[in-house]
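Morning!

As promised:
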Amino acid sequence: MTWRERAAQVLREPLVHFLLAGAVVYALLAGRAPDLGERRIVVNEAVVGQLLSRWSESYRRPPTPAELDGLIADYVRDQAYYREALRLGLDKDDEVVMRRMRNKMIALATSEAEAATPTDAQLQALLDKDPARYARETLFDFSQIYLGPDSPEGRKAAEFALDQIRRGTDPASLGKPIPVPTSFSKGAASEIAGMFGDSFVAGLRQQPLGAWSGPVASGFGLHLVKVTARTAPAKPQLADVRQALENDWRADALRKAEDANYRRILAGYDVKIELKK
Amino acid sequence: MMKTRMLIAAVLLAGTALAGCDKVEKALGSKAAEVTEAAYPERVYWGDTHLHTANSVDAFVFGNRLGPEEALRFARGEEVTSSTGVKAKLARPLDFLVITDHAEGMGSTKALYDAPRILIRDPQVLKWYDMMHQGPEQSVKAMNEILEARAKGTLPEQFRNPKANAERTHNVWNTNLDTVERYNEPGKFTAFMGFEYTLMQGGNNLHRNVIFRDGKDRVGQIDPLDPTNELTPDKLWDYMDAYQAKTGGKVLAIPHNSNVSNGLMFMMTDGGGKPMTAAWAKRRADHEPVVEVTQIKGDSEAHPFLSPNDEFAGFGKAGWDIGNLMLTEDKKPNMFAAEYVREALKRGLLLEQNLGVNPYKFGMIGSTDSHTSLSTGDENNFFGKHSGVEPGPKRAMIPQGLGAKSARFGWQYLAGGYAGVWAKANTRAAIWDALARREVYGTTGPRMTVRFFGGWDFKGDDLNGDWVKAGYGRGVPMGGNLATGKTGKPSFIVSALKDPDGANLDRVQVVKGWVDKAGKLHEKIFDVVWSDMDKRKVTGGKVPAVGDTVDVARATYTNSIGAATLATVWSDPEFDPAVRAFYYVRVLEIPTPRWPAFDALRYHIKLGPDVEVKAQERAYTSPIWYTPAS
């Protein structure tokens, strides 16, 4: 591939289009607006080259001479209308123009962030900020029996059943059938929550270790449980959760880039909200 | 328990550097995740096999601005901001997601929207371009016009330029694969690669979702297939064969919305209307092991026209049984038989009797077909079919047809469709394999746990022991075939457990279909276990209704009726060893409020008298088949 082809490739990149468009917008905002009073519309090699390449991109063939004439005529017409419209201030307060400009500004602000790659230090900082988010979950070792719907009578029956277990009755003989496992070894909190509902996991966290206790309510009703171990998650290591960190870093970087860009722009304005109290 | 160990090495690739034509893939680090596959499936995994993002031609113009990344974060349980600026979060995360953007014109409307206006020569395209830029309402109108032109085959040339489309599709596809790879976390959350093959005959829906078992190393070797000029699925199957041959990977296809195919999805002939051959039947069964039976655009299990004795047939049929997808052709009663899944399963038996192969031997799942990048299947958290109808006061009552004709209304869309998968682990391989062996079921949204085993010696007291182990040891799970060469009657272990965050269960039914020697098709529904059986005695051959606790004005219900769990061992009292049959389970919840009731409450709106404000949500399992020994 020659440098020429390479350059052509780069010019076709949507990102480059955005950057070019963005540069124009920046130029406008920087107060270096092109002279709108300039009455000369120039169609030179560069303009035609651009028309040609855009045409070919869409139609996979060069335009016929007649089509090229049409393209040029259209270009001139667009320029004339565009400049005249700007001169008359028709872009002001036009919702479509505003939305389009806003979208271009955002795309420009976030395109850099999209291509950026975080350093290990950045990822480590993210991990240190919220280790719980990346930690593996609490693991529970427990047994459970199901006693039926949660009701005042059900709770009384649960107390009675608990008393019987303490007196030596086999817990399995007291439970009602339910198609969930009766014992878990290293069950992850989210997995148990998916199976029994969130309230059940909250209940498991509060039970004493090593003895039958309860009742604990699930989405199905009341249970007696015997929690034998609650394994707190180890501190997460960067190497183990790199992908999750990178995903979050990237999503956050986009948000931040957009936000920072907006704040920077806003700083140049004096916003007054005038409302009657 | 016996466990087989499997090492899944996920090489995670991310970020394609912009360096001229040299596509530099930068490995950000390879991660080997060790995931243990259980000896048999111990838990059900929940997911959506059918989700569209802003890269789908229609989703974008309907207003969706969220890409695959937001879709994946949302499915994993993160909060995202919807295209209309509303904070959105699932009450419970999903276990897996397949992003299935339309292959046809992938990313094209987004590209059109972003294009400079000067480039657009076609006056029709220019009109749509301007409408797209004129705000949400005009944009939705533009999309309906585009869809109608698509259905009529009158799309302008710019939309049909195959080479430009192919190039764009290639780029969008590869970017998506990178994103999917970054969010796939074996053991925790599975992100699949896939696309929708939006096959149509006119406005008749023959759509399929294509789901790959593999990662980017394989899937990146091919691009999605464009269905534009096709009328039958044969080319898709060729494509799938070619993928498997080229890469050594695996792929399957899942048809959906047979309810709006106007009599084409499950024909007695081949796709082109010629007599079906055994070879064609085998190809169909091999490539399409599962059907999506319920989703936002209606439910395709059973229709009252075909199943007059089924008092629960026709869930979510309102608006969907009046014509095809695009409403370019009205529905005629003789079309129903090739549109509803129960009838298709019966037809499959007859075709097998004639050809020796059953083309319609498929399992069932539900999925959303949401076009908002948000897989919402819950009634109280429904983000709509597309971004033009995200939560808001008007959406329940407005006409909401696809295409220009507007004879369907907002409330007729269903908040629902999830797939329950009995997989041995939460990995691409394990979930895909469960789909392939049909050990799956569909629900209209709630996450009830349903087990179904068929065998020859199950007895009532099996339920007192480890019946799951017995089910796998002495029988077959949903999706399987009853062992042949046995005497007696088949018996089934059936177990249903309510959604832990949802409504109690009304009843569990076994739906049986069979074909007699004369080739006549039959079906019968058996209520096998229900709540309060001692009080709800069968009268006139029917189990009395469970009751209704729905308070529509408050959009609430109470679990004071129904049961948390229902289980039984059932054997077929009418079993005839000489006839082919299938059995599947349908589980009904007690009545609960539908999403329009939640909208009415939130936005203080008045719903019209036609609006269905409550429903008995349900689950459908894959069948178990019986084939007489020949």
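Chain B has two domains: 41-440, 447-626.

Hope this helps with the figure draft.
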